[in-house]
């Protein structure tokens, strides 16, 4: 995978450069050499642009083939009228297919990056349109979202970023002062798998909200999922919130493939956007799931599954964001312009080749090595593992004492217990280890709650006091630190 598209060695066509690269030198590549490489690369990936044209023709034909007037029954008020939904989707497919054929044809000629980016934008629109217009049937929803994902992959993933080889600077793969490469394929494949699983779970939830399925299976909470997905909290957006989650997971899954093993340095903008998608938006997603018993008074099994999938993605992505930030800081200190480095990447700060990461293709032959490399930067100190267990125990405490689901006592246990779990898992990422001190605040609130609420120091209150005190005590141990993080080492406390 590391040799895919524009991430391959720039000097591959120029044998004299390879020997120097193996010795740790990265000679400047002249613009004529880069343009020759661009033309050769375009010829090798010509099938991609023909496939874009074929997908455009497919969409064009779909607008005359599929039934756009059969409207699924949605269990909520929709912002667009029933009559307009089918018409809007038909015109969306018609125009998108036509534009895709036009700009796909333009992409058959090398050095037309704008045409490829327009194709990518069409793919993004195809992923969004079924949510905005509440696609009237499951067939139209599946058709548009799958074609949209394929178009994004074919325009900027399989052939590489359009014309990136014209500006990409060859150099180090391991960030300065780091002991591993946070952008290596073993580090990314687990993110891709988690993103795909989240995509599938969210699509199942979205199918119910969009009216394509009449019921949703919940093995643990009975009608809890139905109550959550039809709740006022879920209706706060003009589109399906589960569909919005599916859209986010679509981008997370696809962005896992973007760029090469040096993307923390060559594509800071992409790592920043990926980090925003995973970290702050992921935390919002998790918090919304946590708030379900407080706001709705019910749990949703597959909503919890989606949040559980998202949770480890945050610490797994945090190290790549930190490496990207360190690179931007070092580049600006060397006098390079911030925005130029952010959008085009910066020149190498050293000659550190990644010789530690195993090849992803060795997964079947040496699965242990690849899996271990996937979680470099993550560790599970016993105190954080216990904090996670005690957070789960706190969430189950109201059920053990048979308290009402929406009582004050149950709300506190559900909310703070879930937050303790979230903080503990996030802190298993070594670059985020300092955040474990948030558990001191959460544990303190749990411990003192019996003295201010109605349950005082009865059996339930004593359990709260003990669990809170233990969580506070556990957060002061840092645990083992297995890797080095350059400038960030001083923040791993």
What would you note in describing this structure?
By secondary structure, the chain is mainly alpha-helical. It is 60% helix and 0% strand. The longest helix is centred in the middle third of the chain and has 33 residues, at 301-333. The two termini are 35 Å apart.
Question: Which helices and strands appear, and what pairs or packs with what?
Answer:
Elements: H1 15-22, H2 31-44, H3 46-65, H4 82-106, H5 113-132, H6 138-157, H7 185-209, H8 224-229, H9 241-255, H10 263-266, H11 268-278, H12 280-290, H13 292-295, H14 301-333, H15 338-344, H16 367-374, H17 382-400, H18 408-426, H19 438-448, H20 459-474
Helix pairs in contact: 3-4, 3-6, 4-5, 5-6, 7-9, 7-14, 7-16, 9-11, 11-12, 11-14, 12-14, 17-18, 17-20, 18-19, 19-20
What is the structural class?
Answer: mainly alpha
List low-confidence stretches: 1-27
Counting H and I runs of at least 4 residues, what is the number of helices?
20
Query: What would the average pLDDT be, to the nearest integer?
Result: 86
Topology pattern, helix = H, strand = E: HHHHHHHHHHHHHHHHHHHH
- Helix content range of the residues, please? 55-70%
Shape: flat
CA gyration radius, whole angstroms: 25 Å
Distance between the termini: 35 Å
Q: Largest sheet, described in full?
A: none
Secondary structure tally: strands: 0
- Report strand %: under 5%
